[in-house]
Specification:
2 copies of one chain form a homodimer. Chain A is of the alpha/beta class. The first copy, chain A, has 3 domains: 173 residues, Molybdenum Cofactor Biosythetic Enzyme, Chain A (3-Layer(aba) Sandwich), CATH 3.40.980; 77 residues, Alpha-Beta Plaits, CATH 3.30.70; 162 residues, Maf protein (Alpha-Beta Complex), CATH 3.90.950.20. The first copy, chain A, has 15 helices and 18 strands. In chain A, the strands form 4 sheets. Chain A has a 6-stranded mixed sheet, sandwiched between helices. A 6-stranded mixed sheet of chain A has the order 14-13-15-16-17-18. The longest helix of chain A has 20 residues. Chain A is elongated. The interface between A and B is large, with 63 and 63 residues. Chains A, B: It comes from Alkalibacterium indicireducens.
Chain lengths: 426, 426
C-alpha cells in the first residue's frame, strides 16, 4: 500500500507555519506498513490542489490531505474535492450539534458559515474531531481512498491516532486491529540504540519497530496489526522481551511519559519529596519537575546558587569546601545536595554544579559537571560527567542525567563512576 | 519571479525529521518578493528527484533543492542533477582544502568519499558552507536557476542568509543589495499587531514587511532591495518610523535578541543584579535568565518556594501575609520580591506567584498570577494578570510578563494596573 501526503495552506508556502503534519503522518503510516514517497504542499488554490490530487492518483492508493476544512473562504479542500470527485456534500448532524452546543456555551455568536465545518461527502466515513469543530472524513471511490484531515496539529494528531489509523487498518488493509506500544530509553544515542537492536528492526514487518530520538530520550515504537487486541499485544510482548534482553539498563518507561514524568510518578507513589540546589542549570532541573501537574506533592521548593558567595551564605556550603575543592567538585555537589535537602525538608536532595561553557572556569573545562545526590539515610554520593562545549546542551544533559540518577537511586540500580563522600549514615 | 522548493531525503518521508527548511526558505524568498507555490519532498531516489525537477521546470524560474549534498551513498542530489543537466562535476579547491584541514585537526581519518562534498558543477557559483563541509552552489542554465543547499538546517540557514540571498538579488533579480532588519515586540498577539500595521504591510512591495509570532514574542521583518546598503537602510528607516508611531509601547529590541536577552543586556550595561522567588513558574524565570552567557554577572542565585511553609520558613515571607492575604496575592508577590532581593543582595527582586492550573487554588481560578517587583529604593509593586486555563502556557506567560515588567521598570516606562504596597522608600 502506497500513500501520498498533500498539505494545503498558503500559510505553509509563506513559511509562517512549519509543516509538522507531514512528518507526523509519515511516521503513523510507516507504522502501518504504508509507504510514502512524496509530500506535496500547495496553497489555498483549487486549481493547484486538483493538479496535485490528479498527480497523486497516478502514484498511490491512499491520498491523505491535511488543511482547509475550516469555516473561512480560504478553506477550499472540501468544496474542491466534492467538485472534482463529483460527490454531494451533506450535513453531518453530530458535528452540527457539536458546533451549536459549542457556541451556546461560549460568549461568541455562531458565524453562519461555521456550519461548513459540519459538511461531509455523501457515502464518506466521518472522522471525529475530539479537539476542534471541523469533522474529518475518509472516502473510497474507484478503489482509491481519500482522507481529509484538519490542518492544526492539535486537531489532526488525535484524529489520526484515535480514528484514521483504525479506519485504515479495518477498511483499507482489511485487518482487524492495530496495537502499538512505545518504550522509552535514556543513556545512549539514537544511533547506538538502533545499532544494538538492528537485527530486530530489520527482520520485522509485523510488528514494525521504529526508533526515534527526542531531546536526549530515545523512543522505540512497536506496532502490530492483528486479528484482535490480545493477539497484537502478544506479538508486541515478544518483541519487547527481545529488546529488553539487549537493553535492560536503559529502559525507563512506556508511552508519553518523559524521564521527568517517570520520576514524578515514582516520587508520588512512594510519597517522597525532592529538592535541588542548582548552579550551572540555573533552575532548569526544578522547572522540569514543576512543569506539569501534581508538583506540589513532591516538591516544596529549591534553590539556585550561581555564585560561590551565595552557595556559602544562603545554602551554607562551608567555606572550607569551596576554598579547598572549588565550586566545581564532587564535594561541593554533595554538600549542595545535602544542604538543600535539609533546607527544604525533602527526602532527596540534588546538587548540580559544573562549567556550562563555552569558556572554562579556573582549571575546569566546559562540560565538566558534578551531580550530587543525598537520599534519606543512604550515603550521599556524586557522579562526574563530561558533556562537551555547547552551553545549553550541557545544561540539558545535566538536568536529564540528574533525573536518571534519581531514578537509579530510587530503583536501587547500580550507578557507575560515583564518588562517595562523608559518613555512612546507616 | 517564481520558485519551487524541493526537499530531498528519505528521513523526511519516514517522518524521522520535520522539514523546517521549506518554511525557512519560503520566508526568505517571500522577503525578496519571490513567490513560492509548491513544496515537494522526495526520497533519496534519482528517478523521483528528476521527475520532481522536470515538473518544477514547467512551473518556475528558480528551483531550490535542499539535502543530499553529503558524502554518503544516499546523497544523490549532485550526481543526479549533473546527469540530468549534462554538466561536469569539478573539484572546488577551497572546499577540498577545508575538508583536509578539518580532518587534520581532528582525530578522525578522512574517508575517501568525503571529497564528494567538494565537487561542484562546472560554471556554477559556489555557496560557502560556514558551518559544515558540503559546499552549496547556484547554476543558471537556459534562463533557469538551480540552487543546491545542504539538508541540515544549521548549515542551510547560514548559507541562505549569508550567500544565497545575495546571489539571488545580484544575479537573478539584478538588484545591487538586500538589507533587512528585524524588530521585536511583546504584549500583543500576532493578529493584533498585524491588524495595527496592516496598511503598511499591504502597501509595501519594497521594502517588504512580514509579521511572525515566536513563542509569545512578535517579530516584524523589514527587507529592502536597493542600489546600495545606505539606500536600503534609508528605506527601512522610514518604514520603521511609521511602525514605531503605531506601536511605540510594544517594541523592545532588534534582531535575534529575545526579551530575556534584552533584559540581560540592560542589566549588564547598568551593572545591576537580579534575583527571583518563584512559585508557579518553578524555576523557569531564573532558568531563562541563565540559559545564555554572562549570567554570572547579573545573577547570584534565586529561590523556588512552592509550598506556603517554605515561603515562610526559607524565604521569610511573614505568616501574617500568608494567612491574611493568601499565597496568591499582590502582598505575597511583593514580599517574595523583597525578601529574595535581600537574601541574594540583588538590585532587583522578582516574585512570581499564582495558580498555574488547570485546577483552582482555594478561591483563585487558574491563570490568576501576581508578579511583584522590588527595585532598589523604589516603591515595590505588584501587577495582576489573568492568563487562562493551560498550565504550561500560564507558566510561560508569567515568565515573559515578569521580564517585560523588569524592562519597563528599568526604562521608567508606565505600567498599568499595578498595586502598590508598603512604605515609599524614598
Amino acid at each position: 500500500m502506497k500513500a501520498e501526503i498533500i498539505s494545503i495552506g498558503t500559510e505553509l508556502l509563506l513559511g509562517h507555519v512549519v509543516n509538522t503534519n507531514s512528518a507526523f503522518l509519515s511516521r503513523e503510516l510507516a507504522a502501518l506498513g504504508v509507504e510514502v514517497y512524496h509530500h506535496v504542499t500547495v496553497g489555498d488554490n483549487p486549481e493547484r490542489l486538483v493538479d496535485a490530487i490528479k498527480q497523486a492518483e497516478q502514484r498511490v492508493d491512499l491520498i491523505v490531505l491535511s488543511g482547509g476544512l475550516g469555516p473561512t473562504e480560504d478553506d477550499i479542500t472540501k468544496k474542491t474535492l466534492a467538485n472534482y470527485l463529483d460527490v454531494d456534500l451533506i450535513l453531518h448532524e453530530e458535528t452540527e450539534n457539536k458546533i451549536i452546543t459549542y457556541h451556546k456555551n461560549s460568549d461568541f455568536n455562531m458565524p453562519e458559515n461555521n456550519q461548513l465545518q459540519a459538511l461531509i461527502f455523501a457515502d464518506s466515513r466521518p472522522l471525529t474531531n475530539d479537539t476542534g469543530l471541523a469533522v474529518g472524513m475518509m472516502l473510497t471511490q474507484n478503489n482509491r481512498h481519500y482522507a481529509l484531515l484538519p490542518g492544526p496539529p492539535d486537531e489532526l494528531e488525535p484524529m489520526v491516532e484515535n480514528y484514521l489509523k483504525e479506519e485504515i487498518v479495518k477498511h483499507i488493509l482489511d485487518e482487524q486491529v492495530l496495537v502499538s506500544r512505545v518504550m522509552r530509553f535514556f543513556g545512549l544515542t539514537e544511533a547506538q540504540l538502533a545499532e544494538k537492536i538492528q537485527d530486530i528492526v530489520v527482520n520485522q514487518s509485523n510488528p514494525t519497530v521504529a526508533v526515534y530520538a527526542n531531546d536526549g530520550e530515545i523512543t522505540v515504537r512497536i506496532t502490530a496489526k492483528a486479528e484482535n487486541e490480545e493477539q497484537g499485544n502478544e506479538a508486541i510482548d515478544e518483541i519487547e522481551k527481545d529488546i529488553m534482553e539487549i537493553l535492560p539498563d536503559y529502559f525507563f518507561g512506556y508511552g508519553d511519559k518523559r524521564l521527568a514524568d517517570v520520576i514524578k510518578d515514582m516520587l508520588n507513589e512512594r510519597s517522597l519529596t525532592i529538592t535541588a540546589a542548582e548552579s550551572l542549570t540555573g533552575g532548569a532541573f526544578l522547572s522540569d519537575l514543576t512543569s506539569d501537574l501534581s508538583a506540589g506533592s513532591i516538591l516544596e521548593g529549591g534553590l539556585i546558587t550561581y555564585s560561590a558567595d551565595k552557595k556559602n551564605k544562603v545554602l551554607k556550603v562551608t567555606k572550607e569546601t569551596i576554598n579547598k575543592f572549588g565550586v566545581v567538585s564532587p564535594e561541593c555537589a554533595i554538600e549542595m545536595a545535602e544542604k538543600s535537602r535539609a533546607m527544604f525538608d525533602a527526602d532527596i536532595g540534588v546538587g548540580l554544579t559544573g562549567v556550562a561553557g563555552p569558556s572554562s572556569l579556573k582549571d575546569q573545562i566546559p562540560g565538566t559537571v558534578y551531580i550530587g545526590i543525598a537520599y534519606k539515610d543512604k550515603q550521599s554520593f556524586s557522579k562526574h560527567f563530561h558533556f562537551g562545549y555547547k552551553r545549553n546542551r550541557n545544561r540539558r544533559l545535566a538536568v536529564q542525567n540528574a533525573l536518571e540518577l534519581v531514578r537509579r537511586v530510587l530503583k536501587d540500580m547500580p550507578i557507575e563512576n560515583t564518588i562517595f563522600y562523608g559518613e555512612d549514615k546507616k
